[in-house]
Amino acid sequence: MFLIDANVISALAPSKRQRHGSLIEWLDEASPQLFLSVISAAEVKSGIVKAEREGATTKARQLREWWESVEHLYAQKLLPFDLRCAHAAGQILDDARAHQPGFGDIAIAATAQVHGLIVLTRNLRHFEPLGARVLDPFKALPKL
């Protein structure tokens, strides 16, 4: 089972769908095995707010509508950053202190660890020092 990082779920965004056909097909097929983190939800929301702030209202509207549908589809599979994840994040933060990881990556790695998931991300170099099991689905689609 897999935890989808924001940079992977973003491949489903309206402006990017055509570029990632095989990944989108795989995500559809793998849907029962996929989870999202509330941290990724915050990262996507930040991108929507940025588009609004910069005056890209059409893009912001399209992204907001798309994200609302993603949240609806994953409503039961949107994992919280709870106390167990916080404890795991504290350990990961100390273990990876030399790499100065961002909190979002630590939180996603901790969530994946607590739930026994593999992180799907383009940013392998961000997650490997955190001890997370990671795969880049843009390079090779995982076997189901």
* CATH topology category name: Rossmann fold
Which structural class best describes the helix and strand composition?
Answer: alpha/beta
Shape: globular
User: Uncertain runs with pLDDT below 50, 5 residues or more?
Assistant: none
What is the CA-CA span between the terminal residues? 9 Å
Helix content: 40-55%
Question: What is the number of independent domains?
Answer: 1
Strand order of the largest sheet: 3-2-1-4-5
Family: Belongs to the PINc/VapC protein family.
Cofactor: Mg(2+)
Binding site for Mg(2+): 5, 105
Pfam families: PIN (PF01850)
Descriptive report:
This protein is α/β, with parallel strands linked by helices and 144 residues long. It has a single domain (2-135), classed as 3-Layer(aba) Sandwich (Rossmann fold). The chain contains seven helices and five strands; from the N terminus they run βααβααβααβαβ. A five-stranded parallel beta sheet has the order 3-2-1-4-5. β4 (118-120), α7 (124-127) and β5 (134-135) form a beta-alpha-beta unit. 28% of the residues are buried.
